[in-house]
Amino acid sequence: MEAARAAITCRQRLFPTCYGTELTSNAILKWQQERGVEWHYIAPGKPMQNGFVESFNGRLRDECLNEHLFANLRHARHLIAAWRDDYNHHRPHSSLDGLTPWEYHQRSREDQTLNRANQ
């Protein structure tokens, strides 16, 4: 549930997923209904229809999961959290014009503040 909350912003109205209704919880369905988000199932065997998530999953798998042997769940959580922090705060992304997600977020907030001040 927390992953879905983090992945979807209030402005996004479509959430593609490759999982069928058997893996959709009542909590997720209630959450998406309250926010007016359309739950869209991609066609079976067509991961290209959800390219952003597939790209992220591939990076996580290649750069973190395939690189480590986890001794236990606590160890896995620690290493994955460190990778996520690097990915979200320190690593430039080509899709964000070479900015880190944190820099992009900050710039977007500054742009919104300037737009409000100019109105």
Automatic annotation (TrEMBL):
Alphabetical list of SUPFAM superfamilies matching this protein: Ribonuclease H-like
InterPro entries reported for this sequence: Integrase_cat-core, RNaseH-like_sf, RNaseH_sf
Sequence ranges assigned to domain Integrase catalytic in this UniProt record: 1-109
Gene3D superfamilies: Ribonuclease H-like superfamily/Ribonuclease H
Domain of life from the UniProt record: Bacteria
Name of the protein in question: Integrase catalytic domain-containing protein
Organism expressing this protein natively: Sinisalibacter lacisalsi
Organism lineage: Bacteria, Pseudomonadati, Pseudomonadota, Alphaproteobacteria, Rhodobacterales
